[in-house]
Amino acid sequence: MPPAAARIFTFRRVVSSVLLVVAFGGLVVAFIMHDDTPNPRLRPRAVGTVSPEPGSLQLRQTEIFVELDPAYTGSLTINGTVIPNDQLDVIEGLNRYSFTPADGKEIDELPPGRTCAVIAFDQAVNPGADPGSFRWCFNVS
Fold first, then answer.
1. In terms of residue numbers, what domain contains 26?
2. Does residue 40 belong to any structural domain of this protein?
3. How many CB atoms lie within 10 A of CB 14?
4. How far apart, in whole angstroms, are the C-alpha atoms of residue 6 and residue 42?
C-alpha cells in the first residue's frame, strides 16, 4: 500500500469532487429552468401597445399613448379626467391616441405618485357592438 501522501483517491478528494459536480449540476439546472420572458399583460384584443409601461417610473410631462386595433376608435381618460378629442394627437395609420400634458391643456402636468390611464374603445364601423376599456397605471416622479 502506498504512503498517504502519494494516494490519488482520498476520502477528502472524493467528497470534494462529488460536491463540485453537484454544485455544477445545480448551476446548469438553474440556468436551464430560468425563464426571463416578461409576464404576459392580458389586454383586450382591441388594445395593442400602451405607454408608459404599466408599473414604470415616468416624468410629469411624459407622453401617454395607446395603439388600438384599426377596427376600433377610442377616448382617453387620465386619473379620472376625460381628455377632449381636440387635445389628443391621433396618428391615423397606427390608430394611435396620445396625450402629452402641457400648459393650456386639460392636464398641465401629471401629479407625482400613481397615475392611471383608461382607454375606452368601440368598433368604428359598428358602434355599440364590442365596447370595452383597458386601464393601466404607472408612477410619476
1. 4-33
2. no
3. 10
4. 65
